[in-house]
Amino acid sequence: MKCPFCHHDNDKVVDTRTGEDGGIVRRRRFCCHCNKRFTTHERVEATTVRVIKRDQTRVPFDPQKIKQGLERACWKRPVSDVQIMQLVGEIVNEIDARYDSEILSGEIGKMVMQRLRKLDQVAYVRFASVYLEFQSARDFSNALQPMLCEENAGHEPLP
Fold first, then answer.
1. What pLDDT does residue 154 have?
2. Given pLDDT bands bounded at 50, 70 and 90, which one contains residue 68?
3. Sheet strand arrangement including 102-104
4. Distance CA 93, CA 14 (A)
5. Which of 28, 63, 127, 153 is positioned for an S-S bond with 73, CB 3.0–4.6 A?
6. Domains of the chain: which residue ranges?
7. Can you give the C-alpha Rg of the chain in angstroms?
8. What span, in angstroms and rounded, lies between the C-alpha atoms of 13 and 115?
9. pLDDT at residue 22 above 80?
10. Within 13 Å, how many C-alpha atoms sit on residue 109's CB side?
């Protein structure tokens, strides 16, 4: 494993823990060259699911793309890297459990939005604006309306 800081491949595993569902192994590593610590996550790689994109092309499923999209949506929000990795792990596990060979990219987007909405509403709207290709302020308003209705449920209207 190459160190993300100095790029040398001489490290020691300091701590190993399994994830909540047992499908992921988290390892804390210590670089023997630069003395910095970093974390790696390992998972069993099952048969590769292919993603059917909007233009009908098929590409191998890449969880890193979900992570990058979430990082952009959660930029400058109170969402930790651990929460993002947990969300990615949940989505990967659901895809592994429900899909054998192919999945529509839209299904992945729905999974991300469903979980992101519970995690951070601002990040949800950011992700939705890209995923749903918002073109106007009305698109933003339509995305916010269900959340505003939920928030106001049970509250007395203001005078």
1. 57
2. very high
3. 58-60, 50-52, 102-104
4. 27
5. 127
6. 9-44, 46-150
7. 19
8. 32
9. no
10. 16
